[in-house]
Amino acid sequence: MAEKAVDADRASEDSSQPNGHSQHKEGFWALALGSIGVVFGDIGTSPLYAMREALGHARGGGGGEMAVLGVVSLITWALILIVTIKYVVFLMRADNKGEGGTLALMALAQRVSPGRRSLIIFVLGMAGAALFYGDGIITPAVSVMGAVEGLKLAPGIGSRLDQGTVQMVAAVILVALFLVQSRGTASMAKFFGPITALWFLTLGGLGLLHISDDFSILRALSPHYGVLFLVDNGFLGFVILGSVFLAVTGAEALYADMGHFGKRPIQAAWLGLCLPALVLNYFGQGALVLSDPSARANPFFEMIPQAAYWPVLALATLAAIIASQAVITGAFSMTQQAVSLGLFPRIDIRRTSETQAGQIYVPQVNTFLMVGVLVLIAMFRDSSSLASAYGIAVTGSMFVDTLLFFYIVRYMWKRPVWQAAGASLVFGLIDVVFITSNLLKFFDGAWLPLALGAALMVIMWTWTRGAALLAEKSRRDSVPLAELADILKVRAPHRAPGTAIFLTSDPDTAPVALMHNLKHNKVLHEKNIILTIHTAETPRVSDENRIRIEPINDDFKKLVIAYGFMEQPNVPKALGLCRKQGLKFDIMATSFFLGRRSVVPSAQSGMPLWQDKLFIFLMRNAANPTDFYKIPPGRVVEMGAQVTV
Q1: Which of 268, 293, 439, 615 has the most CB atoms within 10 Å of its CB?
Q2: Whole-model pTM?
Q3: Is a pLDDT exceeding 80 seen at residue 467?
């Protein structure tokens, strides 16, 4: 993901200072350019296939005047209503300390809503996150395949290529893309914005070039052509809406990547370049099909002049690769947030840049996405078939955003219930129409992202439920920390020099590792710190609010280290902040005690036996807390215990 941006709103406040305006202006446009490469890559590759798929489902092959006007009108107004009004105007106002996206919105809604509704919000957040991964698998496959299929119309070689060769080329490109993820993309990210901006300029230029083929296409600006087209096609028109939605896939990225670039740079990039370029291109494709109905088979590639075909094809492929890269990196970021919020077990998350916080690599997610993409290419073979599986995950994710938006309007903005319900109802009806339309393609491939999302929701629910049951059991079997401290004051065991830090999720009860150390080693260190890592419902926590120290007595202190859900924990670095509050650590004289629990299933637990076994599998494959919290391995002591769940 691109470099973390300074909030544009905050930067604008500095513009009143000397030279502030010019500095803000340069930073603003740099952020706007960067957002084009990351935020709009997915929606920018939609012209490769959206118009083709929508016209292909229309009566008579989609070459008739009403079909072309209707499809172009529907695409145009989908871009206006869903992307511009819903996301750019409204949802981008609902930010969590500058961050957007489903999980950020979930955390924000939980923070501002009454506690009794938290479970509903939590489940909605899980659903949105699960659907995002479905989108993350399909987007690279359909984007790259849609671009590479242009080889079949390329001058000189197109007639000699079959679909199998196109599949192979797309697979090689995608495998190479996934293999370079571990190296990071910081060095290449600076080129994403300019390349994608050139792509949007090319889209607009091709559209302008062909609008003159039939100026009557401008009638499609009127929404009534879209309505007439739907009425004329009846139930088939409802089916076509699923293909029309392909034009707005990627809209959620405007909101999800808001924290990386700021609201106003993204809004400026969309309104100033991306939206006009997309509308011009779709109108150009429509005018071309009106003048030459045979072009409806692949209107985008038919509109490219022969002399410019290879450069445009190369640019289209680069744009598809950049769009795929943005989705892959988004999946890494989503995973980091999900782990921080307790939806997934600890997982290996690696930083690939020392200066850019968003540059991370998650090996398991990368492998999962690569295998999934290759399976999709083998199963569906071409972009038309892939397009049938596309859309349902995105529409579902958008609907989750709409439902969570109700809580923001009602409790954060403190609007009456009827206003919150009205705002959500308008957008919700649009979402439901597109969801239902995409569900009609269930047996054509839409089942895949839904099945994947359902499996991920089961995993997330199992992990959160199992962790809660385990915590409750540990709490019942534990001794209150204050009570233990009083007992040890009266009957002091042998004292060992140095400091012992005991990691625990519940700072009010004695950690399992502490109890085992007293039971088996019969020693207590001179200084004992009960350490809890807390994840805040905000993206980041300032250093001033990072740590909180609460003395219990001379022997024990509670230490809480807080991190935002967008941050990676680093315990030794956070301990350095304790010096400012008078708590000093010599890392070489400090031992970290971790409780390692061996979990066994139980038929009498709060979950079915199969769910117990799944939870145990997840626990066994979770990342080592020593690595996850960046604790020096040579200073760690693990104390084992067996528990049932």
Answers
A1: 615
A2: 0.85
A3: yes
